[in-house]
Amino acid sequence: MAVIPDVPAQPAGSRTTKIAVVGAGAVGSTLAFAALTRGSARTIALLDIDRQKVDAEVLDLQHGLMFTSQAHVIGSDDPAVCEGADVVVVTAGAKQKPGQSRVDLAEATIGLMRTILPGLVEAAPDATYLMVTNPVDVVTYAALKISGLPRERLFGSGTVLDSSRLRVVLAERCGVAVGNVHAYIAGEHGDSEIALWSSASIGGVPLLDWVPVGGAAPLDAEVRAEVHHEVVDSAYRIIAGKGATNYAVGLAATRIIEAVLKDERRIMPVSSLLDDYYGISDVCLSVPSLVDRRGVADPVRVPMSDDELAGLRASAESVRAVQKRFGF
């Protein structure tokens, strides 16, 4: 059994940061590793019902502390390990199997939220809560109802990862660096998600006006449809090949956490409870939103075509139908 050290007391008046990761599976442990290597917080706490697993993950992470920024890594099967956390990241949930839709996961994961959220909120009542478990939009809505937390302080990772996938595919197609591509996926983190082509750009050029360079194919409607399909299908391909997605989602969640801890006021397509966003209300959905120390602040009303807006509304209805199926 690994010995998990207590976090030393900090000098009076000092301010350090703490991330609590709930779930030490593939996503949770990878997220903790990403946060440790990026120096995202001074303390990283892992919580999992499997004490042997969480002890092993903590010990493995501790053995790398010589090569990272100064940090403390702790873990337990007791929610008290989350006490004092600035951000609690919930990765625990049913594992998605090859060919299984995210919606199929909803019932088991919502049941788990009913079990674990009260204890987490009791241990870390002032934390910001980030949901990183599928189906994230439905689970986020359920978690808000179960926890009673305000919408600003509990939200989901949404389509931050999907938007990264979109930018990677577009960068490869256009022969440019990923950092030169600005584009969002919105709506459900799932099959009904949409690409916001109208607001996308490459190197400052509106994507719909982009002139191919170096022999790249033009980004016409057919190519855009191929790109969108590749983005939607990518998670299923990864799960079929290795059983889980973990690296990119760990990095994506870490960037969301940093936007909160560092008060970055970064615009990210996280999943939050909408209130009259282009007429859409009472559903958790991903749209570009301001993320800062408050958590998720205001959504940004990016320009949308009629087709994109119709797609967003259809996505909202798809998610809302699942919510109703589970009594929300």
Query: What is the distance, rounded to the nearest whole angstrom, between the alpha carbons of the first and last residues?
Result: 42 Å
Based on DSSP secondary structure assignment, what is the total number of beta strands?
16
CATH class of the largest domain: Alpha Beta
SS-derived structural category: alpha/beta
Helical content (DSSP H or I, runs of 4+) = 25-40%
The overall number of domains is: 2
CATH-defined superfamily of the largest domain: Lactate dehydrogenase/glycoside hydrolase, family 4, C-terminal
Poorly predicted runs are: 1-5, 7-14
Please tell me the overall pLDDT: 92
In CATH terms, what is the architecture of the largest domain? Alpha-Beta Complex
Rg from Cα: 20 Å
Number of helices: 8
Written overview of the protein:
Residues 17-156 form the Lactate/malate dehydrogenase N-terminal domain. The modification Phosphotyrosine is found at residue 236. Pfam families: Ldh_1_C (PF02866), Ldh_1_N (PF00056). One of its GO terms (biological process) is lactate metabolic process. NAD(+) binds at residues 23-28, 48, 53, 93-94, 115, 132-134, 157. The protein is of the alpha/beta class and 328 residues long. The protein folds into 2 domains: 18-156, NAD(P)-binding Rossmann-like Domain (Rossmann fold), CATH 3.40.50; 160-325, L-2-Hydroxyisocaproate Dehydrogenase, Chain A, domain 2 (Alpha-Beta Complex). Helices cover 39% and strands 16% of the residues. It has 8 helices and 16 strands. The chain has helices spanning 26-38, 51-62, 106-123, 136-147, 160-174, 221-242, 247-261, 306-325; strands at residues 18-22, 43-47, 72-76, 87-90, 128-131, 154-156, 181-182, 185-186, 194-195, 201-202, 205-206, 266-268, 271-273, 284-286, 289-292, 295-299. The strands form 5 sheets. It has a 6-stranded parallel sheet, sandwiched between helices. Strands 7-10-11 form a 3-stranded antiparallel sheet, with helices on one face. β15 and β16 form a beta hairpin. α1 crosses α7, α4 packs across α8 and α5 (160-174) packs across α6. The longest helix has 22 residues, at 221-242. The radius of gyration is 20 Å and the shape is globular. Residues 1-5 and 7-14 have low confidence and may be disordered.
